Amino acid sequence: MTRNSIGFDPVPPSPNVARNGLNSQPVIQFEHALVRRGGRVLWSDVQLTVEPGEFIAILGPNGAGKSTLLKAILGLLPLNEGKLTVLGASVRRGNSAVGYLPQRRTFGPDVHVQGRELVRLGLEGTRWGVPLPLLRRLWGGGKLAREERRRVHHAIDMVGATGYAHRPIGTLSGGEQQRLLIAQALVTRPSILLLDEPLDSLDLYNQQAVSALIRSVSQEYNITVLLVAHDVNPLLPYLDRVLYIGRGQIAIGKPEEVINSETLSHLYDSPIEVLRTQNGRLIVVGQPESVTYHPHNHHGH
Question: CA-CA distance, 293 to 231, in Å (whole number)?
Answer without folding.
Answer: 11
